[in-house]
């Protein structure tokens, strides 16, 4: 998979100056300076002397000083090289100048939230969000094995891991990335993944036979549908879930099944029927949580259990867990097989052969990236 998002704005790399042929309406420049009193004021005065109207200023802390990003409307006839030389005459370093647009002039928090909103709503816009937040020239998705994070190209290239299997590679010619920007982009990627795993947001899945099912959080109003699910399940299926000979679920269990005190439930709903029920039990930010599945007999071996376990795994990562545990008696291999189909590593616990341990990724994947 190789998906790319690129900026089309003209770029000036100050490593080898190329004066602009055509004046830009708005320029974005980055100036490295010490954090002394009056330094920014001197730069502002020099810009005014050159006829530049300052439209916006952002300050990025860097080791040994600050990096100011300044957006200006230059006076006609002024070149980027003249501007850089004037800044350097004030004892500062102009790290790059690129063309910009007035519509980009929003504060960083607003820009980041706007990019996150768009990426959450449209799954193929993660590239656009990262590109906008970093003002990058190019953002590409590559297999993680090909990302080569050690190749930084002098700070002009950075890699973000998405899910262990894929990565985003961002490049920017006009100025190197700084740590504050990279931290902001990492937080954006994590936010997008967390928002997409919100249990309150239903997720549609398609089973192997083409049937469409919705996965959503269970609520008390689902009690009757959950009772009906249990009455349609065979004794074998109920025993594998509860490890007892109960023929159906007692009413007193329903509240704990749908809204557990330290966890959550996810239902698979087709039409008005609940056809599967999954539970995730355990306080947030603990190393492990318990997971359980109940899939109606006629829906088994159709990919539904796999989708339900994958959803519970996403939610477990979001809640800060690193491992899932499931009670699985000797001879029962349904949970390990389901975990393997969901791309999760499962194994019997060393000290308890009735317990299956399922390892989770360190972070949420970002679907659609």
UniProtKB/TrEMBL annotation:
Task: Give the species this sequence originates from.
Answer: Amycolatopsis minnesotensis
Protein's UniProt name: GNAT family N-acetyltransferase
Matching InterPro entries: ACT-like_dom_sf, ACT_dom, Acyl_CoA_acyltransferase, GNAT_dom
Q: Enumerate the Pfam families for this protein.
A: Acetyltransf_1
Q: Which PROSITE patterns match?
A: ACT (PS51671), GNAT (PS51186)
Q: Where does the record place the N-acetyltransferase domain?
A: 213-367
Q: Which residues form the ACT domain?
A: 28-110
């Amino acid at each position: 998979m190789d998906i790319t998002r690129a900026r089309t704005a003209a770029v000036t790399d100050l490593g080898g100056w190329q004066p602009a042929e055509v004046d830009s309406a708005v320029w974005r420049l980055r100036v490295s300076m010490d954090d002394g009193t009056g330094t920014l004021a001197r730069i502002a005065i020099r810009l005014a002397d050159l006829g530049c109207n300052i439209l916006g200023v952002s300050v990025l802390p860097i080791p040994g000083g600050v990096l100011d990003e300044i957006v200006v409307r230059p006076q006609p006839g002024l070149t980027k090289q003249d501007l850089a030389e004037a800044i350097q005459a004030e004892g500062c370093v102009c790290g790059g100048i690129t063309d910009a647009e007035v519509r980009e002039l929003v504060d960083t928090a607003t820009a980041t939230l706007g990019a996150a909103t768009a990426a959450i709503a449209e799954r193929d816009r993660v590239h656009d969000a990262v590109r906008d937040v970093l003002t990058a020239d190019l953002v590409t998705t590559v297999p993680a094995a090909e990302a080569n994070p050690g190749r930084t190209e002098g700070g002009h290239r950075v890699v973000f891991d998405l899910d262990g299997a894929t990565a985003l590679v961002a490049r920017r010619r006009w100025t190197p990335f700084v740590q504050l920007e990279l931290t902001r982009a990492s937080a954006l990627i994590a936010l997008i993944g967390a928002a997409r795993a919100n249990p309150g947001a239903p997720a549609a899945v398609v089973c192997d036979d083409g049937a469409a099912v919705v996965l959503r959080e269970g609520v008390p109003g689902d009690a009757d549908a959950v009772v009906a699910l249990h009455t349609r399940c065979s004794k074998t299926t109920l025993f594998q879930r509860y490890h007892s000979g109960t023929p159906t679920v007692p009413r007193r269990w329903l509240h704990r099944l749908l809204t557990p005190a330290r966890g959550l439930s996810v239902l698979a709903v087709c039409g008005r029927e609940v056809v599967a029920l999954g539970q995730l039990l355990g306080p947030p930010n603990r190393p492990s949580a318990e997971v359980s599945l109940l899939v109606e007999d006629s829906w088994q071996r159709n990919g539904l259990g796999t989708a339900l376990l994958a959803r519970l795994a996403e939610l477990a990562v979001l809640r800060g867990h690193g491992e899932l545990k499931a009670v699985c008696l000797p001879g029962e291999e349904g949970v390990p097989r389901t975990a393997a189909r969901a791309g999760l590593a499962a194994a019997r616990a060393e000290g308890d052969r009735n317990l299956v341990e399922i390892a989770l990724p360190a972070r949420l994947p970002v679907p659609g990236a």
